[in-house]
Amino acid sequence: MSQKIYIAPSILSADFGKINEEIASIDDYCDLIHVDVMDGHFVPNITFGPGQVGKMRSKKPFDVHLMIENPEQYIAEFAKGVMSAVGEELYAQSYLVVHQETTKDLLGVIQAIKLLGMKAGVALNPATSWETIEGLLNDIDLIVCMTVNPGFGGQKFIESVMPKVAKLKELNPKLLIEIDGGVNDQTARLCKEAGADILVAGNYIFSSPDRKAAIESLR
Length: 219
Hints:
By secondary structure, this protein is an alpha/beta fold. It has one domain (6-218): TIM Barrel. It is built from 9 helices and 8 strands. Helix 6 runs parallel beside helix 7. The longest helix has 12 residues, at 75-86. The radius of gyration is 16 Å and the shape is globular.
């Protein structure tokens, strides 16, 4: 039996000037809305702050990817933004994701996110080993395996990350694994074969003349 694949369009590739229209164009066809938050320090780009997240509107849970240094200082504000964006019911199904590389107290940040009533995720850069989080796999709701170096959309998929995905799935089959970076109808097959559950795609979906068809092609 084939596994269920969830699709999380990345609004990094959307038109920021009409972000809620862009979200509405995909809302009925996707499973999560992927929001890339960049601080200009951990990654060279700058995107959304918590206030901007709070002005977004969706009928799907949010998957907020914090590519920021010292995430523990900001998670409460971003959680508040997500609550404004999606409401109480979807808030509890939404994820706040922090990078393993950005905090010295990863378990503490995971626990703080859960205390706020959201699901907790951890992202790993392409060069970061799965072993760095091996002891935390039962504490995390979602692992994000980056298949590009974070910071910009439209990069080439790094296929050598796939063994990491397979290993994490082997270690904890119940753990949700998300792939973020360079996902399209070709690379999606590699992700699914490795055991991925959620596929993030930005450029592939938002540059398509038929966004619904683009989303379905990834499943």
